[in-house]
Design brief:
Elements lengths: L1 H4 L3 H14 L13 E10 L4 E9 L2 E9 L3 E9 L4 E5 L8 E5 L4 E5 L3 H22 L35 E2 L6 E2 L7 E2 L9 E2 L2 H8 L37
Antiparallel strand pairs: 1-2, 1-7, 2-3, 3-4, 5-6, 6-7, 8-9, 10-11
Amino acid sequence: MVDRLANSEANTRRISIVENCFGAAGQPLTIPGRVLIGEGVLTKLCRKKPKARQFFLFNDILVYGNIVIQKKKYNKQHIIPLENVTIDSIQDEGDLRNGWLIKTPTKSFAVYAATATEKSEWMNHINKCVSDLLSKSGKTPSNEHAAVWVPDSEATVCMRCQKAKFTPVNRRHHCRKCGFVVCGPCSEKRFLLPSQSSKPVRICDFCYDLLSTGEMTACQSTKSDSYSQSPKSSLNDVSDDDDDEDSSD
């Protein structure tokens, strides 16, 4: 079915509409063979609080952006190649229901659908697109994924030293390797994580010691791996303390 739609006028028109909704700031989305599979609003767990984001699933990429005018205009376009994506279901807890993790080497975050049926459809379609892409390319699924950031609200003190209390002056930082919320003194070091940035990024002392000695796998016990215990985990991205209202999303 995807192959039949690839060169259809209806598919070209639908993709063109999505492009126009993002305006000149968005990247072009129309390429030969690309098909728009579906779209919808999902709740994305951001660093400060959950926020609605418009998602578009194509047969090779996942695109999302901030909703400026419903169904008419979006900004801060993000494009995620599906070949790098793995997804994991999240257990329902409290008001956060029908969720799953979207994990890639550069960025990992949680999203929630309005209903269990919608969640199932999204996950099935994403898995099918990823499977088809990997089958065609002969590649294997990525085993590496970026940490899911622990939300600011879950840490009143540094998660490493367990002493430093966070205040308007003593700000929270996030380790790019484990996703923990840490104080400045516990995260003064930087380390090159090529999958996340071309420049060294902030990491906590614990992860720095492990990375420096080559024990990288020991640093993988992150919040994303025990997500069912704390489903409010948030996103990770390149800037130190930016919320998703700016370029970091």
